[in-house]
Amino acid sequence: MRRRFLSLALALCTLTLLTLSACTAENRFESSTALEDGYSSSIAEASADAANETPHGNALQISVGGKDFTAVLEENAAVRALAARLPLTVTMEELNGNEKYYDLPQDLPTDPEQPGTIQAGDLMLYGSNCLVLFYESFDSAYAYTRLGRIADPAGLAEAVGNGTAEVTFRMQTSENIPDSNGENKMLVAYFSATGTTRPLAEYAANSLDADLYEIVPEVLYTADDLNYTNGSSRANREQSDPSARPTISGSVENMGDYNVVLLGYPIWHGQAPKIICTFLESYDFSGKTIVPFCTSHSSGIGSSDTNLHALAPGADWRSGRRFPGGTSRETITDWIDGLELPRTTAATGIGTFDFETRTVMLNSGYAMPINGLGTYSLTGETCFHSVSAALERGVRLIDTAYMYHNEAEVGRAVRESGIPREDIFVITKLYPSQFANAEAAIDQALESMGLDYIDMMLLHHPGEGDVAAYQAMERAVAEGKLRSIGLSNWYVEELEAFLPRVDITPALVQNEIHPYYQENDVIPYIQSLGIVVQGWYPLGGRGHTAELLGDEVISGIAAAHGKSSAQVILRWNLQKGVVVIPGSSNPDHIQENTELYDFELTEAEMARINALDRNEKHDWY
């Protein structure tokens, strides 16, 4: 039979989140009776069966025939290698009456066993490059490498059908999967002056297994306060005053735990109530996804959601949608099912910073330190001694590149450190001038550094032949020369064009990031793809470091913590989920740059640094 492979290769660890978003643009205040009556019946009927239960642990989502199934994965080399190639959308051909299969573009590591009875829902690797999904149980004499098993295969046979069936495989990393402590990483926050928005918020939280938080004003609104026909009513005065910020009673104590926030409100004179502004200005939403939702009788979304964007510039804002009174549960469910939002990795740990081990798990299955030493401008013996000093002081991440002309010195320092090779993470880069002969360039890097393998290789920046060079790095991963691969100086447009053309999702994207150039639109996008972000020039770069370290906001925060400005900037990056690689040849500065884990910036301090963004790039990349 003909077998066909269709790779979308968008990113590891992205998954369709069941999420709710809605809004409105009603040019008057919320009216309670009609909307409450309309919502109460439809939502109440759906609330009992809305929750979607998902197993804990390393999991794979399989979407086929309009249904989603979850496979709990094994812990083995084949699974890790497969994960690096996800997500995949493929057309499966029928092999026989028990299974569907497709060929992989590259061989995976194998550990075959003769399973005897195969159960419906088993996911196996036959040989080294044939992935098999079983939808009926039977006895087998063939040897397979076990990858995992669908927890509940009911309906799988009908979903795959009798002939070909398009299937999408994704690693499951959803916000609404509780972590090992049972904490939920999705929050539904809402304000409802008359109770109209409340049922919708409760339904969303229930169906998503999210935490629910009501934004309650310190002084509750009365009927007179909400009388929109009275120009001097409290609500009218607030909506007319750009600086109005009604005080909120209480707060979200653990806002840092959430990565997706659904934000609900009524529409007052075409905009969100000013208490929503208070809420947004009370926390640091950098890297979080915000989905606004609201209710009204008839009007559309207007500008009620987009006008809020400036209050949380570091967030990934999604478009909202209005729901009128009487909305059916089918309409709401369809909207939830149709939203695609980034997920964190509570289930797998991928992309999540571990501040105890000071590492992050990459989508390639390897752990990488979250702060290290950059070696740009370090050459000769200066480079060797700087890397040696860093390794002596506990640094385990070293960044170099072909164009730095110091790979040999970096490799010598690593080899002579006395530290086990597997404890040191080395990054290097291919320059565009090497793209045409990437295989030889990879071998040259290994030879220059005198290493058996390289932990991470990046393409230094986009250029002619970059896809072919990346494909050469993919082959080097299969050959064991490289463990992880990624990109440097790739932004949203470049990534959107590049990713569909390669098989292995980049494990890392390294870009210029510092308080004056924060990339608030780029970082959440990259992280939403399950790709770790690393920042070069974290302290501003040559010619700009003194200005950044002397910034009054940063130096003031540093004084409050008894830390240096450099330490505050590096900690700010880490709390945004950005790996840092400051460069230095000064052993004292190298030591200082490692002391980032005995203090934490508050939400307010993070917000103050976020406000320093000038979109001021300090290099041409």
TrEMBL record:
Region annotation Disordered: where it falls in the sequence: 231-250
Keyword Signal in annotation: yes
Presence of keyword NADP: yes
Entries under SUPFAM superfamilies matching the protein: Cyclophilin-like, Flavoproteins, NAD(P)-linked oxidoreductase
Xref: PROSITE patterns: PROKAR_LIPOPROTEIN
One Pfam short name: Aldo_ket_red
Annotated signal peptide: 1-24
Keywords, comma-separated and alphabetical: NADP, Oxidoreductase, Signal
NADP-dependent oxidoreductase domain residues: 373-613
Domain Cyclophilin-like: 62-169
Origin superkingdom: Bacteria
Gene3D superfamilies with a match to the protein in the record: 2.40.100.20, 3.40.50.360, NADP-dependent oxidoreductase domain
Gene Ontology terms for molecular function: FMN binding; oxidoreductase activity, acting on NAD(P)H; oxidoreductase activity, acting on the CH-OH group of donors, NAD or NADP as acceptor
Start and end residues of each Flavodoxin-like domain: 185-337
Family under the similarity heading: Belongs to the aldo/keto reductase family.
Protein name: Aldo/keto reductase
Protein species of origin: Anaerofilum hominis
